[in-house]
């Protein structure tokens, strides 16, 4: 596979992750706004504030890495691809830690007073948007490993 095609595949996967993440996050903002009349309430909430969930930060990360990836696709550069690869590794670690937290929360390892940081409390962790986001990040990270090797 040519390097430009590999970089395009990486960018398209990240763009898909961005669309997926924001399609799950925007309805949460709408629901929270309709219940509380603001998006800036953080205490005594029945549903978690989207600004306080890992989904928000993962969605922001998707935007950043997608733009960066398209920049690299447009002008391939080994150093920038290495930076993207390292950033994607951080995203994989972040998403993995959130999914691990979801497992601990799902199996009530923290007790009843734990503050939920997930978008979907009570849902089996492999069925959450965070797990799907992890798969997008992981796939892109694996592609970036091959792309970095080809750009040397």
UniProtKB/TrEMBL annotation:
Domain of life of the native organism: Bacteria
Membrane-spanning parts: 51-74, 86-104, 124-147
Keywords annotated in UniProt: Membrane, Transmembrane, Transmembrane helix
Protein name: Vitamin K epoxide reductase domain-containing protein
Organism: Candidatus Yanofskybacteria bacterium RIFCSPHIGHO2_01_FULL_41_21
């Amino acid at each position: 596979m040519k390097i430009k095609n590999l970089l395009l595949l990486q960018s398209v996967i990240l763009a898909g992750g961005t669309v997926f993440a924001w399609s799950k996050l925007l309805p949460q903002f709408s629901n929270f706004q309709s219940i509380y009349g603001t998006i800036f309430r953080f205490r005594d909430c029945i549903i978690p504030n989207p600004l306080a969930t890992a989904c928000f930060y993962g969605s922001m990360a998707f935007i950043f890495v997608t733009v960066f990836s398209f920049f690299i696709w447009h002008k391939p550069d080994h150093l920038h691809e290495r930076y993207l690869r390292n950033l994607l590794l951080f995203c994989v670690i972040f998403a993995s830690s959130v999914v691990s937290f979801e497992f601990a929360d799902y199996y009530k390892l923290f007790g009843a007073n734990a503050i939920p940081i997930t978008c979907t409390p009570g849902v089996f962790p492999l069925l959450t948007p965070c797990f799907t986001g992890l798969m997008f990040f992981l796939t892109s990270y694996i592609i970036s490993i091959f792309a970095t090797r080809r750009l040397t």
